[in-house]
Specification:
The chain is built from six helices and two strands, in the order αααααββα. With 151 residues, it is mostly helical. It has a two-stranded antiparallel ribbon with strand order 1-2.
Length: 151
């Protein structure tokens, strides 16, 4: 599992993102490249801009913590075309360059804050996570979608 807190590995993600263009085609799934950048930004928005997204209600929170969390924070890569949560569904066109810039900024901020800042940090959907769980969740999500677009 890559380490999102490591400067070299964070730069590797950024280099991969920089290989995307507005014309990059997906290998699977429904989202366009601009939508997938916006989609990946949602994960970081829940960390750095939590007011943008409503927290799950009691029942949804229970289901997320007890059935989804273990699959999300482990080291097993996501399968192609898995379903996504409603707040992660992106409709309509997005500004490719703006979404790309935001994602790179979020990756840099996460790396700079470091592992210690994430150990015991509350997740929007899953409650308190270890730094390793945060790492796994963010790295898996980035890898999944960058591979979806062949970078």
């Amino acid at each position: 599992m890559q380490n999102v807190f490591d400067a070299k590995e964070a730069q590797n993600y950024i280099d991969r993102i920089n290989r995307l263009t507005p014309e990059t085609q997906r290998k699977w799934g429904k989202m366009t490249v601009d939508q997938v950048l916006a989609h990946m930004n949602v994960a970081y928005e829940t960390i750095y801009e939590p007011e943008k997204h409503a927290k799950p209600g009691f029942i949804a929170g229970f289901l997320l913590k007890n059935f989804v969390k273990s699959k999300t924070v482990n080291e097993i890569p996501y399968k192609q075309s898995i379903p996504t949560g409603p707040m992660f569904i992106i409709k309509g066109n997005r500004n490719f360059e703006e979404e790309k810039k935001r994602l790179i900024g979020f990756i840099q901020k996460t790396q700079q804050l470091g592992r210690e800042s994430f150990d015991g940090k509350m997740s929007h959907s899953f409650g308190k996570l270890t730094a390793q769980e945060w790492n796994n969740m963010l790295a898996k999500h980035l890898n999944h979608h960058l591979e979806q677009f062949g970078v």
